[in-house]
Each structure stands twice: as C-alpha cells, then as structure tokens.
Amino acid sequence: KTSAMQSLKAEGDKLAKDQKWSAAAKKYKKAISIDDGSSARASAAVWSNLALCYDKLKDIENYLVAAKKCVAADSSFAKGYIRLARAYHLKYLFEKQKEVIEAALRILPENTDLQAQLKMVEQTIKMRAELQELVIQVPLESPLLLGMTPELAEITVNNNSQRTKYLALERGRLPPISLKYEDLSQFDEEIRPVLGAFFNEELIVKWSCGANRLSGLVNGSITLSIEGYIPNDPVPIRSIIFFEQTAHNTANRGMMMSVRGENHKIERVLSRDYGGSIEAVMLLRFFREVGAIVADLLTQDYFINVVNVVARRLQQLKLYKDSLDLWLTCSDICLGKEHQNPDKFILKVADELQANKRYEDGANLYLELASDGVYTGEHTPKAVLHGYAGQAFARAMDYVSSEREYIAYFREYGPNWEWTDPPQNDPSILLMHMMGMYSEVNQALAAGLYNDEAHKKLEEACVVLAGLLTWAGCMSPNYPHFEQSHMVKQALKLQYKQKQAAFNAVFRDAFMAPNVTEYHNRLKNCLILGLVYEPIVWRDGSDAKEKFVKKQKELNKQCARRWIRDKSGMEIFLQFCAGCSTAENEQSLKMKQCPCKMVYYCSEACQRNHWPIHKISCSCSTKKKKEKKSN
C-alpha cells in the first residue's frame, strides 16, 4: 500500500508540475484513500500537496481541511503549518494564523521566513484593530447635499444661497452606476447577493484613516484603507488602500491606489467588469456616507489627492456620471465644512458636467463661479472662467453665448500679452479656441442649421477678425473658411493693412469692447465704408444639417473627456514593484506579475528580496515548487 500510495503521489506531482490541479487533486485523494498510516511524513506530504491543489483551485474550505489534516498527520512537518497559516490568512482569521505560525516556530525556531511571517501577521492584527465598521444604508429620498447629515446640509444651503446654479444640480439617492444593477434577475444567481449589497442594499464597510505603514503590501505611507463586505462573510469582497508612494527618487512620489479582490470564493464568479463597478460603487457610497469625516481626518491636500485618484479611476472605467457624482459629493462636503477654496472643487464639477455632455450646465456653473458675490479669485482667474464658459457653450452649439464669453475673457485679461505661434500662453490658446468656434459657426450656417441675424453677425465678425489677424501676423489659415479671409483682408481700411495697426484693432480695441454688440461694431468699422459681407452658403446634400450635428456632438464629447483627463494631470492605478516601489511607467519599466496575481516586481532581485514577506500570501513561487517536488 505504501508503494502504491507513493506511486499515486508521484503521478499527482507530475500533474501538479504541469499545473493540472484538478487531475492532481484526484491522484492525491486516491493516494490518501489507501494510506495505511505507516509513515507520518509521507501522509503529511500528500495532504500538503492536496492542500496546494485546493489553493490553486480557489477552494478555500477544502484547502483549510487538507491543511489541518496535514498538521494532524505529522506535527513536526513545517510545511503543514505554513499551509494552515495561509488558509487562515485567506479566511481573515488572523489570530488563528498567528497561533499556527507560533506553533511552527516552536519546531523551527531559527526559520527566518516564519519569523518574518509572524511579524507580518502581528502588524496586520494591530492594524485591523484600528478599523471602524460602518453600515451604509440606502436613503429613502434624495439628499439635499451629499456626504453630510441632513441638518448640516440645510445649514450649508442657507449659507450658500447665492450659488443657485450649483445647488440646483440633482443629487440621487444612490450613485448613478447603481441604476445598472437594479434588476438582478439578469445576473447569475451566485453573484446576486454581492451585486445587491454593493449597489442597492445595505453595505458593510470597514475603514481606517491615518499614516500607518504596511510593509509587504505597499512601500509608502497609508492614507486611507477601505474594505467592503456582504452580510455574514468575514472576508471582504474588495480591499482598497490609498497611499503616498515614497520611492527614493522624490520625483516618483504621489498618491496611489491599490485594489484587491480578497474573497477567493467570490472572485471565482466575479467577472472583470463586475470588479471595476464594485470598487467604484463602494468608494462612491463610502464618500457619500462619511466623506466629511474623512476630510476632517486628512489634510485638505491629501483629501484632494485621494479624490483625484478615485476620479481618474472612474474615468478609466468610463464611468463619467459617477465621476461627476464623486466631485459633487466632495464639493458639498467642502461647502459644509467651510473649507478654504471650495471653488476649486466646484470647478471640477463644472468640468465633469462637460464630460457628461451637459455643456450648458457646465458653462452656467463657470459663470456663477465668476460672478460677483461668489467669485473669490483664490483659485482660478475670472478671465479663465469666462474662457471655460466660452468653450462649454461652443460644445453646446450655443455659439452666440460662446462668442460673448470669449470676448469677456479677453476683456478681463486685458491687452498686455503677446501672441505666440504655436500658442504657448493662455490668450493665444483661447484665441485658437475662439477661431475654432467661429469655424463651427461657418459650417453650421453652410449646412443650414442656423439662418438668423445673430449667427450671420458671428460669421461676419469671424471673417473680419480673420482678415485683421492675418495682417497682424497672428493667424494661419488652419480652418476651412479662413481661406476667405484674403478677400476681407483686401476690403479692410488702409490704416489696418499694417501689422501693428491690425494688432491694435483686435487686441486693444475690439476685444476691449464692453459688450458683444460694440465688439461687432468695432470690427465692422474696420471695413471700407459701405461694404457688406455676405456669408457663403453651401449645402452638402439634403442631410447636411443632420450630418453636421452628429459629427459635432461626437467631436465635442471626445474633446470634453480628453480635456478633463489632461487637466487631472495625475497618473494613478499604476502597477508598482512590491520590492522597491518603482512604478510601471517610470523609466519605461514593465512589471512582471507574480502567479498569485497579488503583487508585481520590476526584477528578479526585488522578487527574491521581498519573498520572506510575500510568502505568507503566496504559494506560487519557484521555491515552493521545489519544496513540493522534494516531497
């Protein structure tokens, strides 16, 4: 029997080497069934290898049973304790994990790997004692403001009554992504309890906030740790850590986010799409519930960095409505807490409105920020806010309002700036955007979208402006209708056919006009008396209007979303080396993932150095394969 058992074990070892875990498990179980108990070490080795198979198959319950059998078969077999310790670790039973490691050290007191694991689990127990449990309920009605109590929300609204456009923005009972998961009948029955708890039902969260260090998970200072659970399961579905990376090279510092799927039973049925949505809704519901408390615990800069990281992640997942919901939550919190400079959060809300194709709402919010009685001037110059509003109105295809705001930008900014080609300063860039808006007006008129006097005046202003800019040396014919500018260029009065005079006519006269009507008149006065400009109208087929609108809507959406991605300016959710904290995009490094899919390394040296710490949560290394083979 002993010989037959060893033969079956050898067959199982060969299958395990080829990573055929199910087939290997069957061989090991057959070997155990004929074990006569004559060799405790041989019995323990088979149980150990069977436990490994269950680990690979994410069958944690059977893994725990096999690990216990391994220790019972031979109490002096160190690997049995290592298997059992990992099983308790996966089930979040850290006190039991500690007991097992301590028992193993009594057998092998000089084992440095076990010593490192004991230190790690003691640190984990200490950190988990600091976690606060939070039960997030579903509100019965839409809140007045997000992230705070109803009492504080009412006070905040009364204190900010001048912010009518901002306060009028709708706040839902739940994050927008929850609507996608209201009807759970379309999802697999096994995953419904998870989706229900996270998206539309009671959600259990454990969290802590502070500058702890968690060696082995991240090399940096932890700012915020959040775990999401379903009822009656001690293992979190998602574990998220925000930390400030502290690499030796100070240029590589910055807030980052690490996301893990800890519940192996759930991970077997949780698709990649569900995973991204689950982490998103957990964070959104968390900030809606206790965002104000977190903002008090962190410095304002740290809080902003954390929110930036989450927003960037939501944008990566193309959850633009939820990114707006996040910034709206944080803006509400900053108003409620009377934080310094709440306008920079509200500015983010306006940006996110554009990304959600709510261009007019975004433009009106920019204008509210720029209005007297609201504007503080501490974050964004008033001129820039008018420029943003001009861009937003252009994306809404409200070109009359867009022109008004572009002129307001130049009037606020003043005449003392220099044109650069290519554009390198804000006025030069805004002038480029303004001419782009005029180009769209030309196309809209040509397609028959508009045929009113207001838009014809825009077209006339455009070509006169283009003619002056051409004389001033400030405009290249980058837009289709600027080819017509040479005609108007010749139709300008003689005094404007000089570079400095043309420049002054635009930047020191027309752009300084107190209103759009006067702006148009000043441009028209540059033409030879009695000359009337007639826009060229053409039609690109009978469906020209529909084609223009469709093309422009898609282009505006892409531009708005690219704009908020560029404005955030923060790279997050990078893969980083668990050994040295080097990020994947630094120095063109490409990380290699450990087979356990929990950590990444930039080199074999970092993987070897980090092994004593990582071993507690990994069974996939070369070293373990060699240990298994020796048995």
Characterize this entry briefly.
The chain has 631 residues and is an alpha+beta fold. It has 26 helices and seven strands. The strands form two sheets. Strands 1-2-3-4-5 form a five-stranded antiparallel β-sheet. It has a two-stranded antiparallel sheet with strand order 6-7.
Please name the defining characteristics of this protein.
631 residues, elongated, alpha+beta, two-stranded antiparallel sheet, 5-stranded antiparallel β-sheet, 7% strand
Q: What's the helix and strand layout?
A:
Blueprint: H1 2-17, H2 21-33, H3 40-56, H4 60-73, H5 78-90, H6 94-107, H7 112-128, E1 132-136, H8 150-159, H9 164-167, H10 192-200, E2 203-213, E3 220-229, E4 238-245, E5 254-260, H11 264-267, H12 272-297, H13 300-316, H14 320-336, H15 343-355, H16 359-370, H17 382-395, H18 399-413, H19 426-446, H20 453-472, H21 485-491, H22 499-509, H23 516-524, H24 544-568, E6 592-593, E7 600-601, H25 604-614, H26 622-630
What would your notes on this structure say?
- This protein is α+β, with helices and mostly antiparallel strands.
- 57% of the residues lie in helices and 7% in strands.
- The protein contains 26 helices and 7 strands.
- It has helices at residues 2-17, 21-33, 40-56, 60-73, 78-90, 94-107, 112-128, 150-159, 164-167, 192-200, 264-267, 272-297, 300-316, 320-336, 343-355, 359-370, 382-395, 399-413, 426-446, 453-472, 485-491, 499-509, 516-524, 544-568, 604-614, 622-630; strands at 132-136, 203-213, 220-229, 238-245, 254-260, 592-593, 600-601.
- The strands form 2 sheets. It has a 5-stranded antiparallel beta sheet with strand order 1-2-3-4-5.
- Strand 3 (220-229) and strand 4 form a beta hairpin.
- The longest helix has 26 residues, at 272-297.
- The chain is elongated, with a radius of gyration of 32 Å.
- The protein starts with a helix and ends with a helix.
- Mean pLDDT is 82; it is low at 212-220, 247-252, 477-481, 568-574 and 583-589.
